[in-house]
Amino acid sequence: MIRFTALPTAEVRALQSGAPDAYGNAPERAVSDGKGNPCRHCLRQIREGAAMLILAHRPFPALQPYAETGPIFLCAEPCEPGGGTEIPAALASPEYLIKGYNAADRIVYGTGRIVPTEDIPAAAETILARDDIAYVHVRSARNNCYQARIERS
Question: Whole-angstrom Cα distance, residue 111 to residue 122?
Fold first, then answer.
């Protein structure tokens, strides 16, 4: 069994309060057009007209060669953390890139593949069945943007 996990609430609250992003910049404020603005905390699409943050995020605990940094969206106002065993509403594209990482936060080569959204749970379970995999990232298939993390439940 797998579990989709959102960004940690303490980290998100700090960013919503103006803490610097992964590049040391204040998150940019914008207004969602309601299309393609998934919040990485509540794991839902940010509704049209709602305030949102755009910022650089590195979903890894330390700098190292595999610690990719990229743009993400967050609700500008506090939202409840999403996650669970069901595919989050934020994953609204037809397909995503998934790839496994080891306990040292390094990509495990050969695990990355683009899968249809509805196949993410089964594909992630297959990757997580390996002993050398600690977790899986879900990333956009077109731009490699971080979406969510998948762990064993």
Answer: 13
